[in-house]
């Protein structure tokens, strides 16, 4: 019985760490993944490197093409999108 009593503080510490650290991080990762999956052509985004551009093309797989200006188009990995500044409305059919 004493051995179980010694493990109770360790179990409580793990439970508190899970609630305060691991769970919020998983929620944030899930929200980021949903944001990236919802990207469409015309959305204005910010990359983790600080580049601001408009989504020109959403490619299959892991990349998108961003228009940084009229003549500059770059390929960016989807997971490096930090924020969506403005969303485009879907076209009415």
From TrEMBL:
Protein name as it appears in the record: Sec translocon accessory complex subunit YajC
Q: A Gene Ontology biological process annotation?
A: protein transport
Keyword Transferase on entry: no
What task does this protein carry out? Answer: The SecYEG-SecDF-YajC-YidC holo-translocon (HTL) protein secretase/insertase is a supercomplex required for protein secretion, insertion of proteins into membranes, and assembly of membrane protein complexes. While the SecYEG complex is essential for assembly of a number of proteins and complexes, the SecDF-YajC-YidC subcomplex facilitates these functions.
A Pfam family this protein belongs to? YajC
Task: Give the membrane topology.
Answer: Single-pass membrane protein
Q: Which organism is it from?
A: Roseovarius litoreus
**Record's subunit section:** Part of the SecDF-YidC-YajC translocase complex. The SecDF-YidC-YajC translocase forms a supercomplex with SecYEG, called the holo-translocon (HTL).
The family line of this record is: Belongs to the YajC family.
Predominantly, its location class is membrane
Q: Which InterPro entries match?
A: Preprotein_translocase_YajC
Name its cellular compartments: Cell membrane
Source organism, top-level taxon: Bacteria
Q: Does the keyword Chaperone apply?
A: no
Q: Report the transmembrane regions from the record.
A: 6-23
For this UniProt record, give its keywords in alphabetical order, as a comma-separated list.
Cell membrane, Membrane, Protein transport, Translocation, Transmembrane, Transmembrane helix, Transport
Q: Would you tell me the Gene Ontology cellular component terms?
A: plasma membrane
